[in-house]
Design a protein that fits this description.
Blueprint: E1 3-10, E2 13-20, E3 25-29, H1 40-46, E4 51-55, H2 72-85, E5 92-97, H3 99-111, E6 115-121, H4 130-146, H5 149-159, H6 162-167, H7 169-180, H8 184-195, E7 211-216, H9 224-233, E8 237-242, H10 249-252, H11 254-269
Parallel strand pairs: 3-4, 3-5, 5-6, 6-7, 7-8
Antiparallel strand pairs: 1-2, 2-4
Helix pairs in contact: 1-11, 2-3, 4-8, 5-7
The structure holds D-malate.
Length: 271
């Protein structure tokens, strides 16, 4: 299988992405504070029918870090240029989790004609409350002073359901390794970017791209009711809830998520 890690100059940084397979382009955008590695079960599954592109966003994984603040719009602009330099001409299917979903709204706002389909996992369209913003700024400060180890273990109960923590211990280890491999500056910059993100809740009714919402039934960060409500607002959309899993549904229940995605993508390409 054609699979390689590529490095591209994108908006002044060196951006790394895993590119695999061939066929229509399928872009995977990771959550916070992770890397493209969270999508390995999806990359493995979809590379036989799609050109899978799974970047490390600015400040994460092996991509360059810029400190200060990295906005969701900046991430969306990076993805657009990455697709250009990879010579992906036609519209892409965009699959993002959580922060990858916040970036999806910006991608849609600026580059809607580049979208063939949207798959949004465990995310939300609204902005943060004042308390949420303060918590993010405190977390950014903590990480800058003490490193990602100060947050990694404490994040696990928010990311995985209890059942996944008990039955799939390896997942916690993988997530902790991914978080601890991330630079403090990269974490802080995107955390500040998320704190400053726009509220898209009144705009998503204007999305004309076919959209699939996927959520873990035990997701405590972006719960099913939040995702279900969005699915009633986006006109051409479907909703899929995965039992017994949390915020990291694609990692916790890869088979169910892959099947739901595959059925949706097949339906999108046959219309
Ligand atoms: C994520 O998984 O990307 C985060 O939960 C996003 C957030 O902190 O809002």
């Amino acid at each position: 299988m054609n699979r390689k890690l590529v490095e591209q100059n994108v908006n002044g940084i060196r951006m790394r992405a895993l590119v695999a397979g061939s066929g229509p382009p399928l872009l995977f955008v990771h959550g916070f504070p992770l890397s493209h590695q969270m999508w390995l079960p999806q990359i493995e599954y979809f590379q036989s029918h799609y050109t899978v592109i799974a970047p490390d966003l600015r400040g994460f994984g092996d991509s360059d870090i810029t400190d200060g603040i990295v906005t969701m719009e900046q991430h969306a602009r990076d993805l657009n240029v990455l697709l250009q330099v990879l010579k992906v001409e036609g519209p892409v299917s965009y699959c993002g989790l959580s922060m990858g979903g916040y970036i999806a709204w910006e991608f849609w706002k600026h580059f809607a004609d580049r979208l063939h389909a949207l798959i949004l996992c465990d995310t939300r369209a609204d902005a943060d409350s004042e308390e949420g913003i303060n918590n993010r700024l405190k977390m950014a400060d903590l990480v800058l002073r003490h490193g990602p180890e100060a947050i990694s273990t404490a994040m696990i109960p928010k990311l995985l359901s209890e059942s996944s923590q008990q039955k799939q211990a390896q997942l916690s280890e993988n997530l902790i390794s991914m978080i601890e491999a991330t630079s403090s500056e990269g974490i802080a910059a995107s955390q500040k970017g998320m704190a400053a993100r726009s509220d898209f809740s009144n705009q998503i009714k204007n999305i004309r791209t076919p959209t699939l919402f996927i959520v873990g039934s035990e997701d405590c960060l972006t719960p099913p009711e939040v995702m279900k409500r969005m699915s009633t607002e986006v006109p051409d959309s479907k909703y899929f809830e995965v039992r017994e899993v949390g915020h990291m549904a694609p990692m916790e229940a890869p088979e169910s998520v892959n099947q739901a995605m595959a059925a949706f993508l097949t339906a999108c390409s046959s219309v």
